[in-house]
TrEMBL record:
Similarity annotation: Belongs to the DXR family.
Catalytic reactions on record: 2-C-methyl-D-erythritol 4-phosphate + NADP(+) = 1-deoxy-D-xylulose 5-phosphate + NADPH + H(+)
Protein name (Swiss-Prot/TrEMBL): 1-deoxy-D-xylulose 5-phosphate reductoisomerase
Species in which this protein is naturally found: Qipengyuania soli
Pathway connected to this protein: Isoprenoid biosynthesis; isopentenyl diphosphate biosynthesis via DXP pathway; isopentenyl diphosphate from 1-deoxy-D-xylulose 5-phosphate: step 1/6
InterPro entries from the UniProt entry: DXP_reductoisomerase (IPR003821), DXP_reductoisomerase_C (IPR013644), DXP_reductoisomerase_N (IPR013512), DXPR_C (IPR026877), DXPR_C_sf (IPR036169), NAD(P)-bd_dom_sf (IPR036291)
EC primary class: oxidoreductase
Gene that produces this protein: dxr
Length: 382
């Protein structure tokens, strides 16, 4: 039996992870399950999987959680410190599925235990960069990518040497707005309606702006050190090929699969072995055609901004991420137009360079906090 904790258990990735755990129940002992504010969902999961501890990040809901877990013998905890404490309990596998830089502290706490981290929470890696990858090395932890593109690359690299890689190509669906003419008039409902994937609201908006691919470019840069100029992006609307690795001999390896996050999650849960998933096999004859386009960085400047931030290094990726989180939240609350998201990010980025790269978790959180503050000020000014 292996032990598992799921940070962000009530989200899209968290629920899909629990679906796989449910199907292989006898293999897993669930230690910690966490959520932001959905007490009912968290308590139900904690009871179903007989978790050791359930943590609600919003501390004002702790009494509610205690009441919901009364008589179960499951520990109830609340607040950010409790979240990190739960994440630091030794387990074989931690699934990091909180959305945003809010997940960074708990991920770092899990890394310090030296276990295996299945990382969905790309914002944490984008913000912390080397602070995270160095902690992984120092504590002997293993980072497995859940993000479908990075999981695909990880699989395509298996058995090969990173020195032999000529290039990595991240595929992008292009999102629901690829062919929409007027980006000013886009509503949150339109932006969230992803053609291929069923995901949380924030990443769905990121897919529509292409910031998701921008964040993934930075994520890939940290996970697979082949050099930023060797990481490419191609729009592939069918989302059948999840990414590719080209080698020096001219071979390109690709990973294909249904657009269902349970495939890359299962690949992490079972790694280095394989496990069953319930999806229908890929039917290429029914899909018929696969197409590819160059990204349009004039209409969707996010990938250019992310590449520039990655090139600048230091605090820039954390600033880009923080400004984007604020911009997306403002868009979802209908405070700003869709087309303003990249403008706000570019503005905060252009103002916010720091002389030294952040070297500790606290410094990363400091950069994140000031970039959020500046983004909020700019929103107020408008
Ligand atoms: P989601 O919004 O569905 O779920 C987020 C989870 O994090 C929930 O459990 C929520 O309670 C928790 N959470 C939110 N804010 C929090 C906070 N401030 N403190 C503590 N917990 C908080 O998001 P998702 O779509 O599951 O995405 C999770 C992460 O995985 C994101 O980083 C996303 O980019 C990445 N990812 C998601 C998918 C997908 O298909 N959904 C695919 C690839 C990568
Ligand atoms: Mg992805």
């Amino acid at each position: 039996m292996r032990s598992i904790s799921i940070l962000g258990a009530t989200g899209s990735v968290g629920e899909q992870t629990l679906d796989l755990v449910r199907r292989n129940g006898e293999e897993w002992k669930v230690v910690a399950l966490t959520a932001h504010s959905n007490v009912a969902a968290l308590a139900a999961m904690a009871r179903e999987f007989d978790a050791e501890v359930a943590v609600i990040a919003d501390e004002t809901r702790l009494d509610e959680l205690r009441a919901a877990l009364a008589g179960s013998g499951i520990e109830a905890a609340g607040g950010r410190a409790a979240l990190c404490e739960a994440a630091s309990r030794p387990v074989d596998m931690t699934v990091a599925a909180i959305v945003g830089c809010a997940g960074l502290g708990p991920v770092m706490a899990a890394i310090e235990q030296g276990g295996t981290i299945a990382l969905a929470n790309k914002e944490a890696l984008v913000s912390a960069g080397e602070v995270m990858t160095e902690a992984v090395k120092r504590h002997g932890a293993t980072l497995l990518p859940v993000d479908s593109e990075h999981n695909a690359i990880f699989q395509c690299l298996s058995g090969n040497r990173i020195e032999d890689v000529r290039s990595i190509t991240l595929t992008a669906s292009g999102g629901p707005l690829r062919l929409v003419e007027n980006l000013d008039a886009v509503t949150p409902e339109q932006a969230i309606a992803h053609p291929n994937w069923d995901m949380g609201a924030k990443i769905s908006v990121d897919s529509a702006t292409m910031f998701n691919k921008g964040l993934e470019l930075i994520e890939a840069h940290h996970l697979f050190p082949v050099g930023l100029d060797r990481i490419r992006i191609v729009v592939h609307p069918q989302s059948v090929i999840h990414s590719m690795v080209e080698y020096r001999d001219g071979s390109t390896l690709a990973q294909l699969g249904p657009s269902d996050m349970r495939v890359p999650i299962a690949s992490c849960l079972a790694w280095p072995l394989r496990m069953d998933t319930p999806m229908a096999p890929l039917d290429l004859a029914a899909i018929g055609e696969l197409s590819f386009f160059a990204p349009d960085e004039v209409r969707f400047p996010a990938t250019r901004l992310a590449r520039e931030a990655a090139q600048a290094g230091g605090a820039a990726p954390a600033i880009l991420n923080a400004a984007n989180e604020i911009a997306v939240a403002a868009f979802l609350e209908r405070k700003i137009a869709f087309s303003r998201i990249p403008l706000l990010v570019e503005r905060v980025l252009s103002e916010g360079q720091l002389p030294d790269p952040p070297r500790t978790l606290e410094e990363v959180l400091g950069v994140d906090g000031s970039a959020r503050k500046r983004a909020n000020e700019l929103l107020e000014l408008a």
